[in-house]
Design brief:
It is built from four helices and 17 strands. The chain is α+β, with helices and mostly antiparallel strands. It has a 17-stranded mixed sheet that branches. Strand 3 and strand 4 form a beta hairpin. It is globular, with a radius of gyration of 18 Å.
Length: 275
Amino acid sequence: MKGKVEFTKMHGAGNDYIYVNTLRYNIPNPEKTAIAWSDRHKGIGSDGLVLIGKSPIPEADFTMRIFNADGSEAMMCGNASRCIGKYLYERALTTQTHIRLLTLSGVKNLELHLDSSHTTVESVTVDMLGPAFDVPTQFIPISTKADEDLPEGTFVSMGNPHYVIFTDDIDQVSEIGPILERHPSFPQRCNIEFARMEPDGGIRTRVWERGSGITMACGTGACATAVAACKTGRAGRKSNIIMDGGTLDIEWSEKDDHVYMTGPAAFVFDGEAEL
């Protein structure tokens, strides 16, 4: 039996998801629902489906589950976590400006930055915890159709896997991204970033997101890019990551080794859909 579910579409720097409050609605088959609703021609249109719930553990306040447009479940999404912070506060599900969010990659702490009226969340800082650099297996260079070796990259885990390639040709994301996502070196597939250092100090980045393809932005991808730039001596510990949909401010703190991501979140529209 079909039922109607209220949803909210939001985006963080253009990375758009469909959000459902599971305190009100049950989504029995989120994988199938994510595929149907994310279709930009036949569905609502999004990079995936995000379910907001109450935390089952005292160390967190709420939970976030993310299902990509292909139905696969993601471990973490920085842009979605910022949107959840704005959703929870502005929809009166919490009065706190510090929110502990349980994800598949651990508990993330959100700091909400309010306007002068204290009614609107202008931006959110997410403690993305520390990066890791353990490559699942040794990356083996492969060739394009022109038999040219792919440029070397830097593997960074932000709770999910990323492979960051610094290159002047960031638009090759559409051709090389899908090849690398499913490369044998990454048994769980991988998010792929193509990054270019800009004269003003920013880092222009395009992303092939695991399970979703090219996205306007990727929070964990921005963090991975900033960390990779610092680790390879291209930048310091603070970077502006310029993505297709907007700019995210990233700091890799020397004090605690955590990566802090700050950026906007925005409502797009509310709606009602059938399961």
